[in-house]
Amino acid sequence: MEPRRGSLAHRAPGCRRAALYRIRRYFLPPLASVVIVLDFSCTKAQLFRTILSGILAVPFMKLILASASPRRAEILRDAGVSFSVMSSAIDETPYPNENPSALVERLANAKADLVAARALGPAIVVAADTVVVLDGHVLGKPRSREEGGHMLEQLSGRTHSVLTGVSLIRLPDAVRRQFVESTLVQFAAISKEEIARYLTTEESHDKAGAYGIQGRAGRYIPRIEGCYFNVVGLPLSRLLASLEELGWSEQALS
């Protein structure tokens, strides 16, 4: 078939190569990994639409963790995910009669909204809030060593739930994703003496339920049902799936 006049195929081979070079040089971000398949029989308008669709498909977005938690940062870092951190300090006081799932969802959304209002896109803001739940009651971070000891006495020899609310906001179009992840944690029976020894490590003071599964408290936990990283504070697998739904890609940042 004879190429249409005005199409790239109608030009000399050298001109076509120069046109493709200009496309790569001026249109595509330098760190993006994109393959655009061109039909050389297309017109200039069709070619432009093809190029534009390829550029818009590039998931060139940075990731912002709306949390000062070193444990959440460590989860992402160990998974090889690039990110920056912005603080998201909010009032975490539960509402009267607020159920645990609604609480972590509300707090995660509030943290994400706070950071999204200050961040610049293209980016995805990730915020999370984690609580320990026993018999329907929320065990947050202990305010004192005595309160931490009381929490551990309650958890001893029983199974409790760990809930993490996660909120994601894509910028600049403010598209959202949110979910609540739950993991069951079985605690071994521990003596008051062992609790007292654990409290001296200061591991419990900034953790929901007064323990850290990734630290010394791991010796008291023979079994969990669900995501381990959720207990630490950030359900990694489900988070990455939600990021992909919003168009984020590790390849764009590698």
Please explain how this structure is put together:
The protein has 254 residues and is of the alpha/beta class. It folds into two domains: 8-56, no CATH class; 62-253, Alpha-Beta Complex (Maf protein). It is built from eight helices and seven strands. It has helices at 13-27, 44-56, 70-78, 100-116, 145-155, 192-199, 228-232, 236-245; strands at residues 62-65, 84-85, 123-134, 137-139, 159-171, 175-186, 223-225. Strands 1, 2, 3, 4, 5, 6 and 7 form a seven-stranded mixed beta sheet that branches. A hairpin with a 3-residue loop joins strand 5 (159-171) and strand 6 (175-186).
In short:
The chain has 254 residues and is α/β, with parallel strands linked by helices.
- Which sheet architecture does the biggest sheet show? 7 strands, mixed
N-to-C span:
42 Å
Strand content: 15-25%
CATH-defined fold name of the largest domain:
Maf protein
CATH architecture of the largest domain: Alpha-Beta Complex
Unreliable spans? 7-40, 52-59
Share of residues in helices: 25-40%
Structural class: alpha/beta
Tally of contiguous helical segments: 8
Radius of gyration: 25 Å
How many β strands by DSSP?
A: 7
Shape: elongated
**The CATH C-level class name of the largest domain:** Alpha Beta
Compressed to H and E, one letter per element, the order equals HHEHEHEEHEEHEHH
The residue-averaged pLDDT reads: 83
Please give the domain count: 2
